[in-house]
Amino acid sequence: MSSHHLSTKLSNMSQSATIKMAQKARDLKSKGIDVISLSLGEPDFDTPDFIKDAASEALAAGKTKYTPVSGVMELREAICNKFQRDNGLTYSTSEIVVSNGAKQCIANVCLSLLNPHDEVIIFTPYWVSYFEIVKFCGGTPVPLYAGIDMDFKVTPQMLEEAMNDKTKLIIFSSPSNPTGSTYTKAEIEALAKVIAPRNDLFVLSDEIYEYIIFNGKNPSIAAEPGMKDKTITVNGMSKGFAMTGWRLGYMGAPEWIAAACAKVQGQFTSGATAFGQAAAAIALQEDPEKLSFMKDKYLERKNLVKGLLDDIPGIKTNDPQGAFYFFPDISAFFGKSNGTRRIEDADEFVDVLLDEAHVAAVTGAAFGDPNSFRISYATSNEQLTEAMQRIKKALSAYS
Ligand code: PMP
Ligand code: GLU
Known about the structure:
With 399 residues, this protein is an alpha/beta fold. The protein is built from 13 helices and 12 strands. Helices cover 39% and strands 13% of the residues.
């Protein structure tokens, strides 16, 4: 028995590069190597106590059973209120689906909407899983690339030119993983003006980093004129509430899309964890300001890392205004050697960082940009400073 028995669909799927690199770092650590892992995008904060307490209370109250596939009513109501409060969006509970992470929301949407050969425009650099999920669901990913000189942001004109009769879906995240770039309200408005007049075209707006933004409030494209009927707004508890391990995400979508996603989910996994949902309802009712200490910390770290990265010759950064990533251009290192090893591309670059600096990062190629690499700065100032020093030292040997 061997892997040739696997389905073609599965064989054509790449492993998640973020998860692969995080595992590589864990393996090295377990061998006693002092690896600093900047690979996985995960808050280093623990879930706030008031949320953990709510889950304990829910467990004690016997919330241990199967839940409605779309989510328990108290959570869906809390999500509707949150959409109204933070995003100016009016949803009814029948337009909300709670899933096992935002990742499942994205899979549900693609499984529900895509037919073979439907094209999906993915703003690039993109989060690794968009591309693979679209492919797995039979769609054709169409990367729409905007480079570092454009702060990695797609313009309305670029979008207009990329759209054709086969385009069914557009996927983007703002604040963005991996670039940390954020679309302003004016930029979202301009993109919406291009999309709104098109029929049979949908947008998946991934707003999971909504609360980790340094230049104001995250604008939701669904709130723009003509957009609500064609937008699926995906969000979740993982990032803003430091709840990655709870596996709770949600979407607001037109009712027929929400119903389709619930149908898929009803066959694949059913409703998310009962006591987790009870706690998420409490979390979402809280004033987001209560959690802004995390954002403040990320901003401090962002400024620290920007200074340290900009001090390394050959590394080019943008100034990310959200999420907790840097996505520097490192193409200046391609072709450079330390006498025994040559850096040919971004894959080799991150291998050099891991082997010679013991810092784990992720190749830009996995995010659709072979000139870059990604680091997550969701870790302590000490670890970040040490990691940047190690990177600087290792790279100084290459000329
Ligand atoms: N979208 C983006 C842009 C992400 O970075 C992540 C983090 N893995 C997800 C979705 C998935 O989040 P979740 O943990 O809720 O599945
Ligand atoms: N969103 C995180 C990342 O990009 C978590 C890992 C994943 O789910 O891919 O690193």
